[in-house]
Amino acid sequence: MNQFFTVDVLTVTVASGIALATPFLLAALGEVIGQRSGVINLGVDGIMLLAAFATYYTALRTGNLLLAVLAGAATGTVMGVVTALVSVTLKAEQGISGIGVYLFGLGFSALLFQKLVGTPLPIATLPPVGIPLLEGIPVIGGMFFRQSLLVYLAFLLVPVVSFVLNRTTYGLKIRAVGENPAAADSLGVSVARIRWSTLIIGSTFSGLAGASLLMYGGIFQVNLTQAEGFIAVALVYFGAWRPVGVMGGALLYGLVGVVILTWKSLGIIPLNASDLAATAPAVITVLALLFLARRFRQPAALGRPYEREG
Amino acid sequence: MSEREADRLMGVTVADRRADVGRFLLSWFAIPSALVVALLLGAVMMLVLGANPVTGYVALLKGAFGGSYALSSTAIQAVPLLLVGVGICIAFRANVFNIGGEGQIAMGGLAGAATALALPDLPSIVLIPLVLLAGAAGGAIWGGIPGIFKAKYNVNEILSTIMLNLVAVQVMNFLLAGPMVDQSPDSVGGLIPETKLLSPNSQLPILVPGTQLHLGVPIAVLVAVCVYILLWRTSFGFQIRSVGLSRSASAYAGMPVKRTITMAMTLSGAMCGIAGAILVFGSISHRMVTDGSLTGFTGSAGFNGIVVALFGGLNPLWTIFSAFFFGGLIVGGSALQVATGVPSDLVTALSGIVVVLVVSLEYLRRRARARTITLAGPRAARPPRPPHSNSLPTADGRGDE
User: ipTM of this predicted complex?
Assistant: First the structure.
């Protein structure tokens, strides 16, 4: 036990917990934007897989990490167009079409990886960037202010998304379309256009999530995400559709994940019990769904394609 | 009076006729055309990756359906897909989305394996039904939990089932690497998460010597037929479909909506649980074994079953053919990989495209139908489609959310 509570181990644990939380946070923030406009995107995991591969392959071929991250984000954007076409224009049942997107992403990323790469080589990952002055603070500096740029970006997006949703006209339109699309429509807001935009932005976030997941480990493998995209969707419910709540959930997942890994390697918990411990976040999420479902209301039009009456 | 005159008298115009043709094409060819489009996209992918799509698809078909061994492998592969698919039919018909097949399969397999480990000496005639029932019970519990959550607390079942998948896989990894691990002297020292060799009395007998065709195949088909009868020939099945089409109307008609939702999820889980038990007791290794990954035991059958059910139009009888077909795609996928060097993951990607296309075309089908009904003048008196129509439940039916 004592080994775990040294300052060094604690610093490293928190720092990598934050890094591990980043993909969850980015994907869940994107999902918040989409769900506030009334669309469930269940294909997040598939989009993350495709984006992670695009990031990996670009980095492997060009060695340019900025280009690699942009490739991941662009993959998300393209998949956002597909998702919007299917969920908004073709009004498909969102719970099922998302599973289709997931299966496509799972299969296609594995296909490309095995065909184009074959033997996996690690890539250089985004270097940690210290924030001047702040990184010098003992303990806290090492935990929070020596991260990669993608991590800072993810956490900066929390207040940004919050501000856009709650304080701008565009955010008002998003919320109106998610709560009462017929009323929004009658006021001249294009429901389809708003939902297209939120899905494209949200999926671009998922693309960034895939990129950041890849940057965490520096290597791609088949089914790299291990259902992280689905967890990100659940975190939206966990965080009650608020960016700050979602951030809390993502941090919980990241920290619990890292703590279990650390405990396992330090022998604090026996190896096979770690499987059982790893169920903790999922169990917590189910319980949260159970208890929060009554306290927070989801966007009223969530999951329903909008059709004009008459 | 000729048909044309009759039409004129009834105010049916050429345009309506065309709409009728469109409706007919959409309702009967939507699902097959989704497949054709997916296969064409697959051909494009193969071309881009430098493989010959004709060689690829011929190899796939031969690997899946060429000869008795290939056919029996396909049938074996189809069994879990069919059972999960049939379970999905029940849940989706009640308009609850069971995405928890993966976890329910794992729990069914564990319950079956634990039963066989506990009672190895029972004769086959008792032990085989017992392990299958145990599997059904394991899956039923794992499907019933999100069912109750959904019915009583309105917890989104898509999310709860996905989360329970993750829990089930970790529990399975824990049990197979810990309490249930193979501890016999000739084992590899508990390095592989697997049970010991299960009692021979629990093994599903091979029906055709020289192939892998085991008792699980006729059982799965029989279950599918029973579920068809349940859904379309019993009042409980009517309740399920009615609740699926409109919760508020069903409640108004005095149906126990909450209980129906819970039961649909429980039954759906039971089907997946049987699939898990058959995966264990029909396996060549005759152990329950995984590899630590999310799909190590299930082989993604919990997700592929959704594809199969949608491709079968959520009708258990069509799902039999659909499962056999997708089983063939999976078996043939390895032949395709050998012949062209294109990884068999192509099949997973194509399944995803099929799902997206089927649910996308569903809207066009509905719209074509609505247009004929509103435009066809006097024929608007045509009664609305009864619950056995071949359409998927829609979000409109989810009255309580």
Answer: 0.91
